[in-house]
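Predicting holo structure, manganese (II) ion bound.
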Amino acid sequence: MTHRIAVIAGDGIGQEVIPAGIAALQAVTERTGIELSFTRLPWGCEYYLAHQRMTDADAFEQLEKFDAIYLGALGAPGVPDGISAGLILAIRQRFDQYVNLRPMRLLAGIASPLANRNAADIDMVCVRENSEGEYAGAGGRIHRGTRHEVAEQTGVFTWRGIERIIRYAFELAMKRPRRRLASATKSNALTHSMVLWDDVADAVRKDYPSVEYRKYHVDALAARMVTHPQTLDVIVASNLFGDILTDIGSAISGSLGIAPGANINPERRYPSMFEPIHGSAPDIAGTGVANPIGAIWAGALMLDHLGHRDLHDRVVAAIERVVATAPVRTPDLGGNAATRDVAEAVVRAISA
Ligand code: NAD
Ligand code: IPM
Ligand code: MN
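Done. Tokens:
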């Protein structure tokens, strides 16, 4: 069986962590009869500087033919972030990847920046709305360049959009032992959008009486992730809230280089996209020391989505074994290993 994967390594450390992920994916599929055929697309900021666009004009037609998209990171000095990030947001919207699934887990052997926390304390997954909300793109600027300039950025929240993400989160919570769902709201200040969010959650929760549902204002939830992470299991959040909460979740799991993300179109009408949650990290790009764990783990999520839960588990177990036993760590985790050293250790653990 062959799965066709579009690879957009992109910019900065995307170019360093994606080869690590591909090495792990090749190792785990070896002699399984499952083949991943990778097509590398040279898209990103360099492409933009040469062609005044981030991708070929028919990018979506090209991407649509693949079974999945494996993405590193986009963004480089010299290109406005709104243009580079715009490609990611366009793919998520165009392919209706409305679920952004982001596990955040402290792996045994990694020290959390939170004092006295161990692996059992941090094990959560964020179900982030990925198609509308604060990132809908509605709005504009008028009277540009004058002191009368006005900018409007309108959040767009729909009952259907909220319902499908909250339902997905409840379904996921049902499958996890603790069966807890925390909804990130802000209905005290955002009295239109977030009150609708809460109303939809109240309607949907009736179908899931065995899930312990609680809503938290997002500011208090951010604090709770730091002070009481062990009380959190599944978190459902709007697009912007989920973005911020998952950087916190990854950081308390050891580093921004740890957490993976899956941008999923659950109906499978379009390819889903898998990426680490971090960006292109221009401050360390080119030095070869980026942590590849988030990218490798994202590759594992891709295998799971393609129907290979067993291979997902083998990759995650290999990551776990490396961080628990080997002294191979990138500088963000307090070590001095290179990206390639970690990739090789994970490949060895997969093949052992
Ligand atoms: P960032 O995630 O790139 O970096 C934030 C900090 O975390 C930096 O100090 C960086 O060195 C560190 N870091 C991130 N990933 C790491 C890793 N794997 N190993 C070790 N350290 C790591 O966020 P930023 O600085 O806000 O953004 C930089 C650029 O990336 C911007 O252009 C932004 O728009 C873009 N960005 C892209 C994505 C994406 O492609 N999915 C995500 C976030 C940001
Ligand atoms: C992420 C990134 C993106 C987001 C940016 C690049 C638009 O921060 O995937 O977390 O905000 O979704
Ligand atoms: Mn982010």
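The mean pLDDT is 98.
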